[in-house]
Design brief:
By secondary structure, the chain is α+β, with helices and mostly antiparallel strands. Helix content is 24%, strand content 35%. The strands form 4 sheets. A 6-stranded mixed beta sheet has the order 6-7-8-3-9-10, sandwiched between helices.
């Protein structure tokens, strides 16, 4: 079983600590996505698992074997880089076969593996071409094919789609998901794109400042973010937030209005952050009790849906609506919401409340 255990891994470069005591367990066949802003430590953690960086502290085991201090070629790990890292003097077929050749796999077996992988990735007609004659998407398929041909215990993908155009990224994302469904190889995937994270991962680890903020399934992250950072990072458009307070009885108050969420009375007079997702706001009649009155500030139609930026007494909110909508800039409207969809965070710690 290709289980992966990362136990207490820290990494420092001089006096700068990049990773802080990271511990993760991956089940056999799991697809874990590491996501976070630039500099959060996700690629460093990937490099520690790959053997490209030595951890300052901690241990990494794969399929029950301690690989913490093994060189990359002895880890049974295949890595796909953002930059493709293809050999320009080799053909596509030679690039895919190269790892097998280094492991002294017999030629007939190498040829069979190359043909099988190339057919799967629909690049079998490109085997005699060199990388300079390929498009970006084709090069990325070759890089993935080279990793697949090795049949490793663990796949590592370091932002493999970043260099592709928008349509090709969507296509390749679907291909990667199909490949994982077919082969079930344990996978770690690094990205800064939360849409990639949500669509690919069986679980997602959200990192910030070298610390895991939350490790959960995509929908758990979306519906119950552990803190304000996760709530704002996961979801597009981002969650709407506003300053709020807690009344004597524990009611969360947005201005003078209760939002329908009650916390423990011990939190009375605590400053909190109110959060509501753009799709959880709905346009209501102006006289709806508890509705938030607003003015349309900007319209962003995308075709299937529209983002409506509205000015409220609590700041600027985004409203997500199906279709092109019928709003005009300057229009007065009111929005309401289901209290069950409200997120509340402590204003000081930024941790989820309730």
């Amino acid at each position: 079983m290709a289980t992966l255990h990362i136990n207490g891994v820290s990494k420092s470069f001089g006096d700068v600590k990049i990773l802080h005591d990271i511990s993760l367990d991956l089940a056999d066949g799991e697809f874990l996505v590491l996501v976070g802003p630039s500099g959060c430590g996700k690629s460093t953690l990937m490099n520690v698992v790959a053997g490209l960086e030595e951890p300052t502290t901690g241990q990494v085991t794969l399929a029950g074997r301690d690989i913490t201090h093994l060189p990359p070629d002895e880890r049974d790990v295949a890595m796909v880089f953002q930059s493709y890292a293809l050999y320009p003097n080799m053909t596509v077929g030679q690039n895919i076969a190269f790892p097998l050749e280094m492991r002294k796999v017999p030629k007939a077996q190498r040829t069979e593996a190359v043909n099988h992988v190339a057919a799967m990735l629909q690049i079998d007609h490109l085997l005699d071409r060199k990388p300079k004659a390929l498009s970006g998407g084709q090069r990325q398929r070759v890089a993935i094919g080279r990793a697949l041909a090795r049949q490793p215990s663990l796949f590592l993908f370091d932002e493999p789609l970043s260099n592709l155009d928008a349509k090709l990224r969507v296509d390749m994302r679907a291909e990667l998901k199909k490949l994982h469904m077919r082969h079930g190889v344990t996978t770690i995937y690094v990205t800064h794109d939360q849409v990639e994270a949500m669509t690919l991962g069986t679980r997602i680890a959200v990192l910030k400042g070298g610390l895991i903020q939350q490790l959960a399934t995509p929908m758990e992250l979306y519906e119950r973010p552990a803190n304000l950072f996760v709530a704002e990072f996961i979801g597009s458009p981002s969650i709407n937030t506003a300053k709020a307070t807690v009344s004597d009885s524990g009611e969360v108050m947005l201005g003078d209005a209760a939002v329908g969420v009650k916390l423990d009375a011990s939190l009375a007079h605590t400053d909190v952050i109110f959060g509501i997702r753009p799709e959880d706001l709905r346009v209501s009649p102006l006289d709806t009790p508890g509705a938030i009155h607003a003015t349309v500030a900007l319209l962003e139609p995308t075709g299937a849906e529209s983002y409506v930026l509205i000015d409220t007494a609590y700041g600027e909110f985004t409203l997500r609506m199906p279709g092109p909508g019928e709003f005009v800039v300057g229009q007065q409207l009111a929005v309401s919401f289901d209290a069950a969809k409200v997120h509340v965070f402590d204003a000081t710690t930024e941790l989820r409340l309730g």
